[in-house]
Design brief:
The complex is a heterodimer of chains A (257) and B (247). By secondary structure, chain A is α+β, with helices and mostly antiparallel strands. Chain A is built from five helices and 16 strands. In chain B, helix 1 packs across helix 2 (140-154) and helix 2 (140-154) packs parallel to helix 4 (214-241). Classes of the chains: A alpha+beta (257), B alpha+beta (247).
């Protein structure tokens, strides 16, 4: 089984906040979350006077002295260090224009690929429009120019398989605490799965359909508790009666196992 | 379009102010309000709102890259609003496409929503708000605005506050809220659409059609504010309902 540790550069509190059994509190923009000078406004909130208001529709979560909102919708905004599933859009002279499922497009320089590309080389021999690449966000400027790079051991071209889109803010929930959710789906469906922080999920394997359904379920019920058990039960039910065939790793994936 | 028939007509303007409104509502009672969130799958956010017989669907697309490119702002997002009436939304078929009225309404809606949005969080992007009036029975701009605010929140766009809107005014000598087309056509009608950001209490849209005294205007504004808060509660409820999962 391909063991790539999916990145959780969220603070993991998403999963934590759902472990408690009380129903999650959902806030809407302009709603007063708390009235206190002791508590600090975190992501998705703003302060006005003594009160902290929500900016977004999302689950209210507090850690230590900070209150923040985990949004339930929204677009992906790139941050340095994020692993993203990108699509090559255009080949230029010394870089590629890539789509990162965000309002902002990104650039991957020929110097930022895993292998050495000589100057003046024809870049379309390496990646052509339509290729999927797992890359890491290497720079984001103030004016939102984004660079991605493949100079990281986890980055690679994604060959074959299928891609689904999920709400970017729910990615930490799909990965789960320390990868618990995604590893559960990987183990049971015997699929290769790569979750990009930008909300693109790439997967390949015999039971792709079951894995896709499981991911759709996690997305739909992201703000409810006890989800891991529910997904586990669903996977067992959906997979019963199917042969326990190993991963259909045919292409370049085969030797990684 | 469904229009209720009412027997009372001509002598209404002369009769006592105590008489009930054509559809039997109290002066400060709005029409049946229905809000549904997430009605369009492919939009980032969407909402469907009914103010009685006025039905509007709103969709939000974005933040996304700006087209046409010259409108791009390197400091903040660009908000684009499109208000449109579907040809069959009124009794006499409306000629499709943009006209003076829809361009004006698109502009005032844009300006009513802008103060509620943290546009600076998404520089170099645009947010598209599209509102389609499916059925019209007066008050379409406020219905569209109420729907647009909910759709924006549904799209995950950071907002200071929601925006709730209602039209109030005077019909047949009485100050009333949420006028129907029938009331709006009264001889002495005053129509005053208003949008309120409920938490801050700030008014982001105020227009008026007709003549009214200063005292009447104050009365109308006070009544609108009260009703806007009722609408706000319904907006909040609708947004929260989308994520309520039956166990």
């Amino acid at each position: 089984m391909l063991e790539e540790q999916s990145e959780t550069n969220d603070n993991g509190s998403v999963a934590a906040s759902h472990q408690s059994h009380e129903a999650p509190r959902i806030a809407v923009p302009g709603e007063v979350l708390v009235e206190s000078k002791e508590i600090l406004p975190g992501y998705g909130t703003y302060r006005q006077g003594d009160k902290i208001y929500s900016k977004l529709v999302g689950v209210v979560s507090s850690a230590a002295r900070v209150i923040h909102i985990i949004p339930l919708s929204g677009v992906y905004v790139p941050r340095v260090g994020d692993y993203v599933v990108t699509e090559i859009k255009e080949v230029a002279f010394s870089f590629w224009n890539v789509d990162i499922n965000s309002p902002y497009t990104a650039i991957m320089s020929s110097m930022d690929t895993a292998e050495y590309i000589p100057k003046q080389a024809d870049l379309s021999r390496y990646f052509v429009p339509g290729d999927l690449v797992l890359a890491v966000v290497s720079a984001v400027t103030q004016s939102k120019y984004v660079n991605v790079s493949m100079k990281d051991s986890k980055c690679r071209k994604l060959i074959g398989g299928v891609v689904v889109h999920v709400t970017p803010s729910k990615v930490p929930r799909i990965i789960g605490k320390e990868g618990s959710m995604i590893n559960l789906i990987k183990d049971k469906t015997k699929c290769y799965i790569t979750v990009g922080q930008n909300g693109r999920v790439w997967l390949m394997g015999t039971h792709e359909d079951v894995a896709l359904e499981a991911i759709a379920m996690v997305e739909k019920y992201a703000h409810t508790s006890g989800l891991t058990e529910r997904i586990s039960a669903y996977l067992d039910k959906a997979l019963s009666g199917r042969g326990n065939a190993g991963p259909a790793g045919n292409q370049s994936e085969e030797n990684i196992e | 379009m469904v229009t209720k028939k009412h027997d009372a007509s001509e002598n209404k303007a002369h009769s006592a102010a105590k008489e009930a409104r054509p559809d039997g509502r109290k002066p400060d009672e709005m029409r049946d309000l229905k809000i549904e969130v997430g009605v369009i799958d492919r939009a980032n956010g969407s909402a469907y709102v009914e103010f009685g017989n006025t039905h509007v669907i709103a969709a939000v697309y974005g933040p996304s890259t700006v087209h046409p490119r010259h409108l791009e702002d390197s400091q903040k997002a660009v908000l684009m609003c499109k208000y449109n009436m579907i040809p069959f939304s009124v009794n006499d078929r409306k000629k499709p496409g943009y006209d003076r009225r829809s361009i004006e309404i698109s502009k005032v809606i844009k300006e009513a929503l802008e103060p509620a949005i943290f546009l600076e969080e998404f520089p170099k992007t645009m947010i598209n708000v599209e509102m389609e009036v499916i059925q019209a029975d007066a008050g379409t701009r406020v219905t569209a605005l109420t729907a647009a605010a909910v759709a924006l929140a549904d799209a995950g766009i950071p907002m200071r506050d929601l925006v709730s809107a209602v039209a109030a005014g005077r019909a047949n000598g009485k100050i009333v809220v949420d006028l129907t087309k029938e009331e709006e056509d009264a001889d002495d009608a005053v129509d005053m659409p208003m949008a309120l950001m409920p938490n801050s209490g700030k008014i982001s849209l105020l227009q008026m059609d007709g003549d009214a005294s200063a005292e009447e205007i104050h009365q109308i504004i006070d009544m609108s504010k009260k009703v806007c808060l009722e609408i706000y509660e319904k907006q909040k409820e609708a947004l929260k309902k989308k994520y309520k999962i039956a166990e």
